[in-house]
Write a structure and sequence with these properties.
The protein has helices at 14-22, 27-34, 98-101, 132-150, and strands at residues 2-10, 42-45, 52-58, 64-75, 79-89, 92-94, 107-115, 118-127. It is built from four helices and eight strands, in the order βααβββββαββα. The longest helix is centred in the C-terminal third of the chain and has 19 residues, at 132-150. The radius of gyration is 15 Å and the shape is globular.
Length: 152
């Protein structure tokens, strides 16, 4: 896996950007920016440190799938760290095998740095080589959408 980094400057306080990105007040804000990855993107679980969380969506056949993850750290309005350790196939958690090995232990970190009411969001994402182009194209679009939502 390769650690990739993406950033976006947003004209809003870190508290608002954090809330919008994680969908704390309204899960729809999370669903709107992550729709760039999958139009049905959502999550189930808690952003609390140590909690299990599912990042899910449905495929073109309507089948539910996604990532099984743990919130490794969460410092509100400053930093969130997600450790991916499995996949979800329908209702079944898969935590071992060749498909999972591509992602197991992969981290996704969000940093929020505010100066004078302007926040820089930085995403560090461990990416399997097969998905480099996908993430390099999609993360910038998703962060642009997050910017639009946060600046409203």
């Amino acid at each position: 896996m390769k650690r990739m980094q993406y950033s976006q400057v947003i004209n809003a306080p870190a508290k608002k950007v954090y809330d919008t990105m994680l969908g704390i007040s309204n899960i729809k804000t999370y669903q709107q920016w992550t729709a760039e990855f999958n139009p049905t993107s959502t999550y189930e679980g808690s952003w609390e440190k140590g909690s299990k969380i599912y990042f899910i969506g449905t495929d073109e056949n309507g089948r539910r799938g996604g990532m099984v993850s743990e919130i490794a750290d969460n410092i509100p309005n400053q930093f969130v760290s997600i450790r991916h350790y499995g996949t979800l196939d329908g209702e079944k958690e898969i935590t071992e095998g060749p498909e999972v090995e591509k992602w197991a232990g992969g981290m996704e970190n969000y940093s929020f740095e505010e100066k004078n009411g302007v926040t820089t969001v930085t995403v560090e994402n461990d990416v399997h080589g097969d998905y480099l182009d996908y993430f390099n194209n999609t993360w910038p679009m998703a962060l642009k959408k997050l910017k639009q939502l946060s600046e409203q």
